[in-house]
Amino acid sequence: MNFDFKKECRGVISVIGASEIDKTTENLTIELGRLLAKNNYAVSCGGLSGVMEAICKGAKEEGGLTIGIIPYKEKNAANQYVDIVIPVPFSQARNIVVVLSGDITVAIAGKAGTLSEISFAWIYGKPIVALTSVEGWSSKIAGQKIDDRRNDMIHGAETPQEVVDKVIELMNAEKPKSFSFSEL
Amino acid sequence: MNFDFKKECRGVISVIGASEIDKTTENLTIELGRLLAKNNYAVSCGGLSGVMEAICKGAKEEGGLTIGIIPYKEKNAANQYVDIVIPVPFSQARNIVVVLSGDITVAIAGKAGTLSEISFAWIYGKPIVALTSVEGWSSKIAGQKIDDRRNDMIHGAETPQEVVDKVIELMNAEKPKSFSFSEL
Amino acid sequence: MNFDFKKECRGVISVIGASEIDKTTENLTIELGRLLAKNNYAVSCGGLSGVMEAICKGAKEEGGLTIGIIPYKEKNAANQYVDIVIPVPFSQARNIVVVLSGDITVAIAGKAGTLSEISFAWIYGKPIVALTSVEGWSSKIAGQKIDDRRNDMIHGAETPQEVVDKVIELMNAEKPKSFSFSEL
Amino acid sequence: MNFDFKKECRGVISVIGASEIDKTTENLTIELGRLLAKNNYAVSCGGLSGVMEAICKGAKEEGGLTIGIIPYKEKNAANQYVDIVIPVPFSQARNIVVVLSGDITVAIAGKAGTLSEISFAWIYGKPIVALTSVEGWSSKIAGQKIDDRRNDMIHGAETPQEVVDKVIELMNAEKPKSFSFSEL
User: Fold this and answer.
1) How is the beta sheet containing A84-87 ordered, strand by strand?
2) pLDDT over 70 for what percent of chain D?
């Protein structure tokens, strides 16, 4: 092998969102995957269907690296676009690992599982970017704070390009704090 | 020993909420703990401070049984009112166990950690009652749905007595469904 | 309710072992459950079949308190003799919680799952008693050390009464140390 | 980016072992890391010191890809030779993820933590290769079975080259079975 990860990869972006999505959301997510790979970011996700599959598909179209953190013990349960499969067969606790494996969290649409991941991203001090042009928790929570303990907010972005611009900006900014249990 | 748990205990109620609370919230939570014990419900919680300590304190005043699911490996990290200490040293993943150990989830105030627990209660099909007379996520989310996959909503209740009345009603009602990963 | 747990219960004993057992092992385990309850110890276990069911059955025959830490999300997956069900749907990671919920670990027979629990009991500084009169890891590993970092060893005991005598002795002795990751 | 993981990488090997090692063990492990990378295998490990650091160091010397599954929430806790950091802040439960992320498990020396990982590799149906030329659990358990439910055994190998030869052979062989809870 001959891959200098630290030289080629500027960071890992956790992408979270619904496992069932419409064509519009799918296309936006594939486009985001392409842009992240072009800008030399690896993507990490839950490794299954919907947003998780679309982001990996887009990333692979541009030669990107994809990490799928699946809630099952068998590696072959991941979608076909995942390069590195990490089985975390701990039910919803796998969501925590999805968030922690990235430097920044990007939310696209999403139901209750996505809301738990947004909560964790907030707790663990990850900057959060939320796509506002689709339905679900990403547009509902954009521009808000989860609680009063961080100075920043969940950043809204309307297009895949705006998401990537925000990601680049946030990668260079000071990181929010991570909370301990006594603060929760 | 001589304790017939199944005969004496009508169910276990998971109580979630902030680890730092004001005097008003503390008193309301202690009152709820008393009422739950009087009505023969055991309480389960995160075992630390704030809402977790107040609910156990109230329950013990009426001879109740308290379960504390703490995020540390040492049992002595639990507050003094916890009877049965369950160490789950898995960071925020312990929140999942708090929710699953109860038949119903009751939310009191709360920040990001509480929001993750509400999300899990929704995913795992637990009926949810949220206290509306205090600040934080419990009052913010009362009367709402986390997503469109359950027919019920998060039930608001204004006083400890109303919470208990709702708990008794929900214990006798049909349970909401629990979701699999392909639905999330 | 009216149960003073801390007054009535002298400690919690984690009992680990095979999920499929022969009649002899079952009878020995039921007898141990009875003796632990008579001596005012609660029992904690994996909540399923085999050793886990027999220990709870014995404990309940003498009015004891039983805790079942199951690897599934639904509380009704526990065996009928479990009082307090703690769902930890994290695959084999639930074994860690079984060990941590007790003050002492008792091993009866056992295959690979039991060996992982014995390893964890060693790491987390729990005294370990292993029944020597049955086949499996409990008799194989009795009298040995898992590694050189603890001064004690895995204590062998030939009968349920000897197990209880050892448990009582160890409850009053100084506890072994628990290890951090840098020592593992 | 431009990395075709599935084309370049023939599999992922989980390497487990002690966090404190002597110079001989370190050199053997570095040599194994080199050989695995040369043969186009990625390595996965616990991401900290000792065997975990040496295997990554060796792999990077030959342009390999390294995955570090650390038990802390902060990515910067991994050793400097880890490319892809996966934080699993779930205490010893992170050991499960180390084993599941690989196709085959290789054990080098090791104390109680390593024994728990060998137990999990057995339970989850991973072929196991154990280095016999160093002290600790890898040499103690080589040639044995953890229990009677698998037809194979833990394969001993005396040198890094023998480990790699065995890995290549096992990658092409039929996989052992994985166990469900009712069988444990």
Assistant:
1) A84-87, A66-70, A41-45, A11-17, A104-108, A128-131, A155-157
2) 98
